Amino acid sequence: MSLLIILSGPSGAGKDAVLNRMKELNLPFDYMITSTTRPPRSGEKDGIEYHFVSESGFQEMLQRGDLIESAKVYGYWYGVPKHELKQGLDAGKDLILKMDVQGAATIRNLLPGAVLVFLTLPSLEDYERRLRQRKTETDTDLKVRLGKVTEEMRSMLIFDYVVVNREDQLDAAVDQIRAIFTAEKCRVTPHVVQFK
Fold this sequence. Notes:
By secondary structure, the chain is α/β, with parallel strands linked by helices.
C-alpha cells in the first residue's frame, strides 16, 4: 500500500535540510517535486528542488487542471503536479512531498489518506535566526514571514504528527520521520490515498 507523507511547516523550519538528509541516507521514499514561479535560490536546480516555471506556464498548468493543489505564497505560485503524484501512488511508491502549511490544509481535504507531518523549530527566536542566516529576505520580508510563522503554528491541529527540528539535531528530526513512516506502515487500517 502506497503511503503519501506531506512534510510541511513554517518558512525556515528546515524542510529542505530534512529532505536532503533523508536523501543522503537513502530512505525509501520517492521525493515529489512541486512546481513554482519563484526564482531559484543559490544552488537550486530545476527538477531537483522544484520545477521552476514562468508565471504564464504556471497559469497554463492551472487552466489544464494539471495541478492537484496550488497556492500563491509570498508572491509566488506553488503547485503539486497531479499526474506525477497519481503515477507514483499507482506504482505503489511511498511518496514524500514538501509543501507550505496552506497547501497541506488543502491536501488534507482533497486526499484525507495523506499523512501530514508538521516540522517546526523550538521557538520564534529560532525562526528569526534561521531566516536571517538564509539571507534571502529583506527586513520587510523577514517581518512578514515571522508574522506568518505565528499564524501557521495555529494550523498544527490539522496535522497527524509534529517533529521539532532542533539546532544541530537534524538526524534526530529525520529519525522521527522515519519512525512515523514505520508506524504508518504497521497500521492495522492503513491510510489510503484516493483521488476524488
